[in-house]
Specification:
heterodimer, A: 208 residues, alpha+beta, seven-stranded antiparallel beta sheet, 5 helices, 43% helix, 26% strand, globular, B: 125 residues, alpha/beta
Chain lengths: 208, 125
């Protein structure tokens, strides 16, 4: 295989590893945070129709050469059901219900960021900073598809439980040149680090 | 039982944590970012522990810890970081700034209350 082809294959493998982590974290954090079990994940087509009354919570995670946008699409009804589970009583306002989704996206983004941090700290020195935005929520009617370049890897999936669901979408953008220089041509190690990442046990107390 | 300051920008997280702590008879004060947290600490000398997030608007949790350390009247209040951040780099920064322990969200109520009990017993006057 030529170097160019080999490199493209590695970038595709990296996208797959990243996508797997985002999906895994989206399920595991919802289970941990809300206590819901038996969640179903169902992939939706890329041209999925988002033109319903719903809300979006967005977050961006960036590390050298890699940019990931995650979006949670939700209805106030689904948010209320989840918030009620966490608080043990019906939330006093719709904002409080939406706040659940904000915190959930924060947990998902944090999990993805930790996968990067773990992969980078094991194999690379001075790669650069990992950064993420604070989740932002906004109403949406037909602006649901992830904003990204045409070359972005996009995925849309639905997480369902009895009677309700939320939809997640992600867009992964890779900058071949920046990746090549930042990871010193050792993309295999980054892929291996991300693929082998185990979602951290939350709630443990680490004393200093 | 003690007066505890929760610093987190998530309304639902503060409410959830407040419920957990109030069940253990603690009194709760809230702030939604580091800047507000600092102001609250300066104006309330009864606060015994701070539970703080890292990523927040206006002022993040680690900057708040740095500012606390620089201010003698509030510099000794123990800080527990309660966050999604788990990188060694972040934890090292926290350790340098005097954070007493680090908990990854979502928290476990039993373990959190045990940690608070331990901190309070260490700082009992």
């Amino acid at each position: 295989m030529t170097d160019k082809k080999e490199n493209l294959k590695k970038l595709a493998d990296l996208e797959v590893a990243l996508q797997r982590i985002i999906e895994e974290v989206s399920i595991s954090q919802l289970t941990k945070y809300s206590g819901l079990k038996d969640l179903d994940l169902e992939y939706l087509p890329a041209d999925h129709d988002f033109s319903n009354d719903h809300w979006i919570c967005m977050m961006l995670i960036v590390c050298p050469g890699i940019s990931i946008s995650i979006r949670c699409h939700f209805s106030s009804k689904a948010a209320r059901q989840l918030a009620t589970r966490v608080l043990g009583s019906n939330p006093s306002s719709v904002e409080l219900c939406h706040s659940f989704i904000g915190e959930y996206c924060n947990l998902v983004g944090g999990g993805v960021k930790n996968a990067f941090a773990s992969a980078i700290s094991s194999h690379f020195a001075n790669v650069g900073h990992l950064e993420s935005t604070i989740p932002t929520k906004s109403p949406s009617f037909d602006l649901g598809n992830p904003p990204s370049n045409s070359s972005s890897k996009k995925q849309i999936w639905q997480i369902k439980w009895t009677g309700e669901q939320i939809v997640f979408s992600s867009a992964i953008d890779l900058d071949e040149k920046k990746i090549s220089s930042s990871y010193q041509g050792q993309l295999d190690k980054l892929i291996e680090g991300i693929s082998s990442f185990k979602i951290l046990d939350s709630g443990e107390v680490e004393w200093f | 039982m003690a007066e505890i300051l929760i610093v987190d920008d998530s309304d639902i997280f503060r409410l959830q944590l407040k419920k957990t702590l109030e069940e253990d008879k603690h009194t709760i004060v809230e702030a939604n970012n580091g800047f507000h947290g600092l102001e609250t600490l300066k104006s309330n000398k009864n606060i015994r522990i701070v539970l703080c997030d890292v990523n927040m608007p206006e002022m993040d949790g680690l900057t708040m810890c740095k500012k606390m350390k620089e201010t003698s009247e509030i510099g000794t209040v123990p800080v527990v970081m309660l966050t999604t951040e788990a990188s060694q780099e972040m934890k090292s920064k926290g350790k340098e700034l005097g954070v007493v322990c680090w908990i990854i969200k979502p928290y476990n109520g039993v373990k959190l209350l045990e940690a608070i009990k331990k901190i309070l017993s260490r700082t009992a006057t």
